[in-house]
Fold:
Amino acid sequence: MRNKHVGYLILGLTIIFFFVVMSFNYALQSIVEVSCTHGELCPMHATVQTQQIISYGLMGLLVLVSLFIIFFMKDETIIQESKKEISEEEKQKKLENLDEEERNLMNIIIREDGSVFQSSLVNETKLSKVKVTRILDRLEGKSLIERKRRGMSNVIILK
Structure:
């Protein structure tokens, strides 16, 4: 859902809550006026006023939050990386001078058209996360791959 839609949803709910709170405050004020025999000196009047200030203050805060979301929060977009077609010559060129573990990871990345999640590499190779990260560090140091952060995971992209 887009942030603007969330902001409008919060604003709409705030308006509904505002009318509920207003009717509750009106009913409470009526009860206090009927049941309180001391007039304005009755402590219930001060309690009702405090309750009204708090409830209308919270409604105002919700309106400000919803307006902030509507006007100032930007929507995040996930960029899909374009997958590359890799020729046999390029494959051989990229795989030469690599040790066996690096070659295994590169073969998986190439097989997946040049773009794969790091977690998929961990699952497929049965290596530990730390070991895969270290191998990817070496491959990145050799300028063969690039890692991009996507949420809680990394996307490995062939250069």
